[in-house]
Amino acid sequence: MVGVKDRVVVVTGAGGGLGREYAMLLAREGARVVVNDLGGARDGSGESTAMADQVVREIREAGGDAVASYDSVDTEEGARAIIGTAVTEYGAVHGIVNNAGILRDRAFHKMTAEDWEAVLRVHLFGSYHVTSAAWPYFREQRYGRVVMAASTSGLFGNFGQANYGSAKAGLVGLVNTLAIEGSKHNITANAVAPMAATRMTEDVAPPEMLAKLPPEQVAPLVGYLLTEECTDTGMTLVAGGGTYYRVQPFQSAGLRFEQTPSMDDVAAQWHTITDMTDATPGVNPVG
Ligand code: NAI
C-alpha cells in the first residue's frame, strides 16, 4: 500500500475547495497537515483565520492531525512562516501542495496591470516562495514531494484568463526544472491541473458540468504524488470527475534547412514543419 503516514505536508489554500479536500484526505491517511489559508475572497481581497481554522477543526474532529497557518504565500516572509509552522509544530516538512490561488478574469484588452500582477503574484510567485522555503529542508533530508496546481487554462488557453493561464503555464515550467534539479536529492515535482466544482469555478463552467466534478475526486491523485512510493517526476496530469490523464508536449518531425531559409522557404515548408503526424515526446535539445 502506498501512503503518507506521519509525513508532514503543507497544503496552501487549504481553507476551502480543492485544498480542503487534499488536506482532509492526507490527514485521513495519517499525514500531519499544515492547513494554510489566507482566508480572503476569490479575487484575493480580504483575509480571515476562519477558513483554515474550520478545516483544522474538521480534521481534528475526525481524529486527524493538523495545524492552521494564515500567512499569505505571496511574499518571501509569508512563505517562510508557512514552512516554519510545519517545522516548528511537526519538526519537518516532507511535502508541499502549492494550491493557493485567486482569480481576476478579464478579456485581455480590458485586463489591467494590477489584475495581471495580482494573479501572477499568488499563483506563480507564491508557489515559488513556498517551494523555495521548503527546498533546503528537502535537500538536507534527501526527500521531498512538490505538487503544483496547474490548469488546463495554462496548458491550452482560455478566454479571459491571460493572467491566470500565464501563471499556471509558468508553474509547469517551474516543475520541469525542479524535477531536474531535485532528482539527485530524491525530490519530485509534478503538476496537477484539476477540474472541480469550487467557488473558483462556480460561475465559470455550466452547473450540469460542475455537478459531475466533485473536488474530492481530484485528491487521491495529489495524495499519490506525495507518497514515497511515487518517484515519477516532471509530469503534468489532469484530473477531474474521476478521469485522470497525463499531458505532455510533443514535437513534430520537422525538417532541417541546409542553408538559412528565406521567409518564402519557411512558407513553402510550413506544412512539414507543423505536421504532427509523426510527432514524438518533446525533448530539450540543450538539456
Ligand atoms: P478556491 O478559491 O476554493 O481555493 C483557493 C484557496 O486559496 C482559497 O481558500 C483562498 O483563500 C486561498 N488563497 C488565495 N490566496 C492566497 C494566498 N495569498 N495565500 C494563502 N492562501 C490563499 O479554488 P479551488 O478551485 O479550490 O482552487 C485550488 C487551486 O486549483 C487553485 O490554484 C486553482 O487555480 C486551481 N485550479 C482549480 C480548478 C477548478 O476546476 N476548481 C481548475 C484549474 C486549477
From TrEMBL:
InterPro entries: KR_dom (IPR057326), NAD(P)-bd_dom_sf (IPR036291), Peroxisomal_Beta-Oxidation (IPR051687), Sc_DH/Rdtase_CS (IPR020904), SDR_fam (IPR002347). Residues 7-198 form the Ketoreductase domain. GO terms for molecular function: oxidoreductase activity. It comes from the Bacteria. The keyword Transferase does not apply. The keyword Translocase does not apply. Gene3D superfamilies: NAD(P)-binding Rossmann-like Domain. Keywords: Oxidoreductase. Signal peptide: none annotated. It holds the Pfam family adh_short. Belongs to the short-chain dehydrogenases/reductases (SDR) family. This is SDR family NAD(P)-dependent oxidoreductase.
